[in-house]
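Q: May I have one protein plus its fold?
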Amino acid sequence: DYSTPEQDIPASALPGGRLWETCMTINDTWGYAKNDTNWKSVEDLTRKLIDIASKGGNFLLNVGPMPSGEFPQAIQERLARMGDWMKANGTSVYSTTQCPFRNLPFDGRCTVNGSKLYLEVFNWPSDGLKLADLDTQVLSARSLDGNEELKVSITGVVRTSGKNGPWVVSISKPSKLDSIATVVELDLAGPPQIAATNLAVLPEASGAYNLDAGLAEVHGKTIQYDWQGVRREDFIGSWTDAGDFVTWTLNLPAAKKFQVEISYACPQGNEGSAFTAGVEGGASLSGVAQATKGERDFRTDSLGELTVPAGLHRLEVRVTKLAHAQAMNLHRLRLVPVR
């Protein structure tokens, strides 16, 4: 199965490896509309393509021909300039897979093809391009446009007791920068391995955590992520096996107490399933799914207070009793600090 969001791009790769494709217009209209001249810029379109590729998706770009069968000049110009960028940098898009990082320290994206890691840098950092949390050795670096060899330097501990330690990889600035995206190819000693701390969900400025469905890891036989193009109405559904569960990774500098809220939908006739939300292998809170009007009619229940220990931990939601065919459609788990 697959998802086809329209005019929108998910915040991250879809959980469970779910296939997806963004369908988007080059202006605001499907097909040709004489008065619609709100064309997306070349930079915007190309960066959208890069963003989608970095999240493991496909990009279906709708272009509307005029009654004569020809494309408007504005479309021709944009496609030609996107093509120019792809001629120089297409290796970072074609046959690549999603970015293995959750958090990147620069303005851009990344993609992977085997032991090649591609960094698509939108704006070159003023203090230089750096990459943290990569546990695989970097053998060499080059810019795709111009094939310029770039210098790689490493700071921090490279090896600790035979294991990769915390290091920061710095890549020199190429002589030619692209205003759309400058692509750097890193040749690694093997497929990229990422430090577990990089996979943690980041908090809001308030210290609260929004553990959205789109950020979850899904575990099980039937459970899956569902998004058909409606912003903020995605969910983890098809929860027909009580053994299935979802997790999110957190990395707290110190133990903290949170008020836990859960948002879900449960169409009438499926209510009554019992569930827990808590720290994997630790404390948890319990709840019972209540009926809602439809599969996207989300309600929010407060489950109580939960203390999350310091360090790297996984938060999980599990079904402890399946009352009917499906447990619920899980939209979000939210952790709000208790002051």
